[in-house]
Amino acid sequence: MTSSAGTSLLRRTVETYWAAADARDWAAVEAALAEDVVYDLPQTRERIAGRAAFLRFNQEYPGDWRLRIVRIVAEGDQVVTWTHFTVGLEEMYGIAFFTGDAAGRITSQTDFWPESYEPPAGREHLVERY
Amino acid sequence: MTSSAGTSLLRRTVETYWAAADARDWAAVEAALAEDVVYDLPQTRERIAGRAAFLRFNQEYPGDWRLRIVRIVAEGDQVVTWTHFTVGLEEMYGIAFFTGDAAGRITSQTDFWPESYEPPAGREHLVERY
Question: Gene3D superfamilies attached here (chains A, B) (predicted)?
Answer without folding.
Answer: 3.10.450.50
